[in-house]
Every structure is written in C-alpha cells, then in structure tokens.
Specification:
CATH superfamily: Tubulin/FtsZ, GTPase domain
Number of helices: 15
Shape: globular
Largest sheet: 6 strands, parallel
Order of helices and strands: EHEEEHHEHHEHEHEHHEHEHEHEEEHHH
Distance between the termini: 47 Å
Number of strands: 14
Helix content: 25-40%
Oligomer: single chain
Strand order of the largest sheet: 5-4-1-6-7-8
CATH class: Alpha Beta
Structural class: alpha/beta
Number of domains: 1
Strand content: 15-25%
C-alpha cells in the first residue's frame, strides 16, 4: 500500500499541517462520483468510531505545547466513548476526594461553528484565525494528539525558543515514556508497506532540537528508510537578539538532522521575493503556512497517487533522482502558480516538441534556473523557499556565482507539458543514470490545487479561479552549498566555543557534497 506517516512538531508545522490535511480531505469522492486519483489509504487509516461506524483519520502525530490546540479536543465526536473511559481510568487511580480545576473554555470560531452545524462556513480572515484548529476540517484519532504540558504557548517565563531546550525536553519525555513506543509505533504497526515518514517541524527554535532527537531515535530503531523533513524557518522580522538565536538554532538543526533524514527541505515562511500574483500577510501564520503547504502538498502529490496514475512516484523514486546515493540530503523547494485559464493560451505557444513555455514573471530561485547540459531548458520558479540568511540579515550574499544544478524533481499540476515530452525527458534521465550532468525527472497530474474555504486568498489571479495549476520543484545545486556556507559563517560567531568546531565542520562537510565532480572552471569550459 506504500503508506506515509506524518509527524508535526510545533505551531508553524501544525498550521501547515492543517492546510495539508484539509487538502487531503478534499480529494475524497463518494458514491456516484468519479474515483479520486489520490489513494486515501496511503495517508489515512481506517478505524471504528464510538458509534461503531467506519472512520478515516490521518496517519499523523501532532505535537504542540499547552494552549496551542485552541478548540481541538483529543477526544472528538468520533471517539466520545474513549473520553468517558479515559476519565474513569483517571478517577480509578485515586480513592480520595478530587477538586477539578478547569480553565475557561475557548469559544469555537464562527468557521468551526458553521462546520459543526453543517452550514456553509463564512469567509475566514486573519482576525478570525487565532489557532490552527480554527480552520481545521478533520477529526483526528485521539492517539494523534500529543500535548507537551511542560511548556506553554507564548510563555514569557519559560519560552520554547532555544535549540537545546527542545533537545532536553525530548530526552526527559523519552526517558519517562519511550515516545516511539507510546506514540509512533502504533501507527507504524498499522502499515502494510511503509513508504516513508514526512516530518514538518520548526528548525530555528526549540522544536528543531526536539525534532532532531526524535529523528535520531527513529534512525536508531528503524534503520534506513525514507524520512523527509520539511524544516520550517520563521522569515518574519524580529529583534536582533531573537534573530541571532534563530540563526544559531537553524545551524544546529541543519547539522543534527542531516545524519537522520534522507532528505531535508528548509522552507522559509516569508520568501525573499514574491511574484505579483501572491499577496500575503507575513505576520499571519495562517497566510504563511498556506504558501508553504501549497509547495509541500504539490511536490509530494505523486507519492499519494493511485498505481494507475501516470504521474505516480514514491519517496524512494524521488530520492533516486535527488540524493546522489544519499550524500546530498539538503534540497531547495520552489513553486510557480499558474492561472488555469491562461493554460490554453500558453499551450498555443508550444514549440515543435510540445513543451509549454511558462509566461509568468520569474525570480532567481534555487530550484532550477538555467539550461541543463542535456540542452533542456529548466524554468525558473517564481517562489524560492530556501532560507537566505545572508540576505535576510542584511549581510549580503557570500557568493554571487551562477548556480549549477545537480538534480531536480518536478511535480506539475495541470497540462503544463505533453505526456510524450515528459516520457522522453524521463527516459533520457534513465539512460544516462550513471553519466555526468544534471538529472531531472518530471511527474504530472491533471489534479489542480484547490483553494478551499479554509485557505486564504493569497493567490490573486485576474480570473479569480477556485483551483490553480502549479509547478513545484525540488533541486540540489551549488546554490544550496552557498546558503549552507552563509549560515555556517554567521553561526560561527553565535555558537559557544564548546560546540562551534563540530557544528561548523559538519556544515562545511555538508556544503562540500555539492562541489564534488564540478567546478566553476568546468562550467566556463562548457560555455
């Protein structure tokens, strides 16, 4: 079945995850409808609800701090009996009198009230969305909800900011409960043939330390496997002291995760440049997570398609193209959104091989942006998600050279390229698998990206479509090395002496993997 289990660590991850799961739910089809191209069993698990009815709930673990879940209850309408049993077990452990202490309940958002009543929900706004649960469409299994009570959301007394705070919290909890046995193993044991794990986590705060230790335990217990980390970086402007702390935490996360993850995609919440058709409030997690979710969900869509779908691929297939036998584990995610009404016009301008030329404006992104050695143009993407620390801090770019791409995977939503052109391109990659030069595979589906009622209107196209075509791409290139070196250079001045040498040496070793077998001089000779 090739199941995927998802882990979500922290606020931004759960904002992204809520958009992600809302989109997965929208793919469900029912009696009398055409079968969905998405195989729901990959991301959802079957179960029995409190009333004996069959249920489908996400294969996910959601970790967050006390006060971060809003109105989301661990036991929901599908599992109300479990809440009663849970309460009786607690009471049975103590024979003396009890005095319940209960905080005032959080009122559900008007959006959630409308969903509960089966009514058309109102248009959401940044004022309405207080928590990620305010726009959540799904019920989760009680085992999916894990609240970490030692720390409270937005606490000024015990802020959850420092990388080693998350590392310490995981160590304490794991020593007390064995988190993998308690939380993750029940989901893994339900899988017939696990395709991989995908982990959404902050990497520039304490969640980076928590996720790194969690992944280390997974690697120790499960050995090798596909483990994709979407490392979420806060791109908002903050005070300099907080910014320095974030840079140090990001450097530690990048180094620590590299040994346990099979692929790591650092993804900023506020890209350095946005195309004219994207308008978002950088201060709103609901907005920034929506853009990140569009990139993650579109890129990984091939891993959830049915076997009969031509664009289908597994995480293993994607890694075969990207990772250079596991040596290049950090890659850059990029995205271009396209108004579907313009596709017909674009298709009329195809070349003799049927390759559609994008007519959107482009910025200089990491994920593609030059003509590869095979002669096939690689379109620049409008949105570059890879954090540019030097630019965001005003330090400028460490290196300004032209990027050389080693490998790329493109996921297309909509008729962006002809099937014959895609097959020819992928066949060329297979034929030259062990040859030098960039390798790029393409996966395409006709399933467009839906902008649901829970999704902010950050894509502003003239025709105001409810669904948009998308080109998502992930690539390894020398530009990744430049960004890693930039991060190392800044972290060197912020990390303590005791850990500085190991951290900086580790980052430089990672960057060197993007230089092997290629140099600027070689590219000049080719030109």
């Amino acid at each position: 079945m090739h199941e995927i289990v998802t882990l979500q660590f922290g606020q931004q991850a759960n904002y992204v995850g809520t958009h992600y799961w809302n989109t997965q739910e929208s793919y469900f089809t029912y009696a009398g409808q055409e079968e969905s191209p998405v195989d729901h069993n990959i991301s959802f698990r079957a179960g029995i609800g409190a009333d004996g009815q069959d249920t489908y709930t996400p294969r996910t673990l959601i970790y967050d701090l006390k006060g971060a879940f809003g109105t989301l209850r661990r036991e929901n309408a599908l599992y109300e009996l479990q809440q009663q049993d849970h309460g009786s077990r607690q009471a049975g452990g103590w024979g003396g009198p009890t005095m319940p202490l209960q905080l005032p309940p959080i009122a559900p958002s008007v959006y959630q009230q409308a969903l509960d009543q089966g009514q058309q929900p109102p248009q959401l706004s940044t004022e309405i969305v207080r928590f990620w649960s305010d726009y959540n469409h799904l019920f989760y299994h009680p085992k999916s909800i894990v609240q970490l009570n030692k720390y409270e959301l937005n606490s000024s007394l015990m802020p959850f900011e420092r990388w080693d705070t998350g590392e310490e919290l995981f160590a304490n909890l794991d020593r007390e409960h064995d988190l993998l046995d308690r939380d993750l193993r029940p989901f893994l044991e339900e899988c017939d043939q696990l395709q991989g794990l995908q982990i959404m986590s902050g990497i520039d705060d304490a969640w980076g330390g928590f996720a790194a230790k969690y992944l280390e335990r997974i690697a120790d217990d499960l050995g090798k496997g596909c483990r994709w980390v979407y490392g979420l970086q806060d791109g908002r402007r903050v005070a300099r002291e907080r910014q320095m702390l974030q840079i140090a935490s990001m450097a530690q996360s990048l180094s620590a995760v590299n040994g346990s993850a099979s692929m790591h995609l650092p993804i900023t919440s506020v890209p350095a440049a946005l195309p004219a058709y994207v308008e978002m409030d950088a201060a709103s997690r609901w907005h920034t997570s929506a853009l990140q979710a569009a990139g993650i969900e579109s890129l990984t869509l091939p891993t959830r398609l049915r076997r009969a779908e031509s664009g289908r691929a597994t995480f293993g297939d994607l890694e075969t193209t990207l990772s250079n036998e596991g040596n290049r584990r950090v890659a850059a995610l990029g995205l271009t959104g396209i108004d579907p009404e313009t596709l017909e016009d674009q298709t009329q301008s195809v070349d003799g091989h049927g390759d559609t030329r994008m007519t959107n404006g482009h910025t200089n992104g990491l994920a593609n942006g030059h003509e590869d050695e095979g002669g096939r143009p690689a379109d620049k993407l409008d949105i570059d998600f890879f954090p540019d620390i030097a630019r965001s801090t005003g330090a400028g770019r460490i290196l300004g050279r032209r990027a050389h791409t080693f490998s790329a995977v493109e996921s297309l939503r909509g008729p962006l390229k002809s099937p014959d052109d895609i097959e020819d391109s992928n066949a060329e990659v297979r034929d030259r698998r062990y040859a030098d030069g960039p390798r790029a595979t393409i996966h395409q589906t006709q399933l467009l990206f839906s902008m649901l009622t829970s999704y902010p209107r950050i894509f502003r196209f003239q025709s105001q479509p409810e669904k948009i075509a998308v080109k998502a791409s992930v690539a390894t290139s020398t530009a990744v090395a430049d960004r890693i070196r930039s991060l190392e250079s800044m972290a060197r001045r912020m990390v303590g002496i005791d850990e500085r040498e190991a951290l900086c040496d580790g980052l430089m070793t990672m960057a060197e993997e993007y230089e092997e077998g290629w140099s600027d001089d070689e590219e000049d000779d080719d030109d």
